[in-house]
Design brief:
Aspartate Aminotransferase, domain 1, alpha/beta, 14 helices, 4-stranded antiparallel beta sheet, 15 strands
């Protein structure tokens, strides 16, 4: 008789490595799976918009397939993609280093299978078994997951959520950050603009973090993926504005958000060229490279996609305004207007279990939000709403939530 899966599961689990067991289940995916087939539901739980990839991007990938580019390619990324990433970064950020007029060089860029792959490689470089890495939280759960899968321990440093004369806002408590560093600390993970809070570090805050990292010999893993979704200028402040050539900073990035390419799974890791062989080895032993036709589409996006990025930012700005106005009218709802990104992180007075609340909103309001419990203890009282959609759609989402709040 073949034993059932329930009977054999303990046997297999007992023989699995603890690093695998430590990888947490995603609280976002749990709610997504619960409501994914609901007719008429507004799915605002995951970090993507409603726009398909632009035609000029898909056309470049199609041409690549039709020309037979279906073979292995360079592990570090095709030279055309790496050069396009360098050109885009030079247009937007000027130079990789403060006070330097030199452009970004292609040898700083390494093609990865999405931003998550870039994050995993960065973590492999900076932390492993027995190490600690500080994560400013509430935080995208994949930061902690990648660290735990590598055998390292994530240490949450909560941002402050407080109210002043300007209203609610998130703020970095620098003393709390400094106090979290131990002998085991190897890195600080900094996501700005933040997923999920929308907190965006000022140049002074970035400089304080960098000075601390320099003083303690720590790496910084910088996730500035939402830097183009900034509501007080063309881009958010960046470590590139203040860093020097010797600083220990790795940047993870992706094509997913700016160019509506979530399903393509193309990203990049920006790192000192001296780490090139290590990064190539880690790519070889994980994915063996990014499909060339995907890189062709990404290259077109990087070179010719500025109008599309501007259009996306325009939509997000309008949708943000709609949500903040309509939901801000309810005294029960608390949120800090996001300074960047495309998420509203809101709490509802009297609702303490946001995991259960997420399921209820699927059933009772027809809106799918991500529970704050997915973003660490500091996020537990909140819900994340992705507003990378048309303002009319956000008006309907706000109407549904308002009707639910009024019951």
């Amino acid at each position: 008789m073949i034993p059932s899966q329930d009977q054999t599961a303990p046997h297999f689990l007992a023989h699995a490595r603890p690093e695998a067991a430590a990888a947490p289940e995603s609280g976002i995916v749990e709610v997504f799976n619960y409501g994914r087939d609901r007719q008429g539901l507004m799915p605002l739980w995951v970090g993507e918009g409603d726009l398909p990839t632009a035609d000029f991007i898909t056309a470049a990938a199609t041409r690549s397939l039709q020309s037979g580019e279906t073979f292995y390619t360079a592990q570090r990324g095709h030279p055309d993609f790496r050069a396009a990433a360098a050109r885009m970064m030079t247009r937007v950020y000027g130079s990789p280093f403060e006070g330097d007029a030199a452009p970004f060089e292609p040898d700083r860029f390494f093609a990865t299978v999405g931003g998550m792959h870039a994050l995993q490689i960065a973590i492999r470089i900076v932390a492993g078994a027995g190490d600690e890495a500080i994560v400013l939280s509430p935080a995208w759960p994949n930061f902690a997951g990648a660290l735990q899968a590598a055998g390292a321990r994530p240490v949450d440093v909560p941002l402050d959520f407080h109210h002043d004369e300007a209203g609610f806002r998130w703020r970095l408590d620098f003393d709390r950050l400094k106090g979290a560093i131990t002998q085991a600390t190897r890195a600080i993970v900094v996501n700005t603009p933040s997923n999920p809070t929308g907190w965006t570090a000022t140049l002074d805050e970035l400089r304080a973090i960098l000075d601390l990292a320099r003083d303690r010999g720590l790496w910084i893993v910088a996730d500035e993926i939402y830097g183009r979704f900034f509501f007080a200028g063309q881009r958010a402040p960046s470590f590139h504005d203040i860093m020097a050539p010797g600083d220990l900073i790795l940047f993870v990035n992706t094509m997913s958000k700016n160019w509506a390419m979530t399903g393509w799974r193309v990203g990049w890791l920006e790192a000192p060229a001296a780490l090139g062989q290590q990064i190539e080895n880690l790519i070889q032993y994980s994915t063996s490279g990014v499909p060339l036709f995907c890189q062709r589409g990404a290259t077109a996006a990087l070179d010719d996609g500025e109008d599309f990025v501007a259009f996306q930012r325009q939509r997000a700005t309008a949708s943000r305004a709609v949500l903040c106005e309509r939901l801000g009218a309810f005294e029960r709802v608390r949120f800090a207007p996001p300074e960047g990104g495309f998420y509203l992180f809101l709490g509802v007075e009297g609702e303490t279990d946001t995991r259960k609340l997420a399921f209820r909103l699927v059933d009772e309001a027809g809106v799918g939000l991500a529970p704050g419990t997915a973003f660490g203890p500091a996020g537990a009282p909140f819900m994340r709403l992705c507003f990378a959609r048309a303002a009319n759609d956000m008006g309907e989402a706000a109407r549904r939530l308002a009707a639910w709040l009024s019951r």
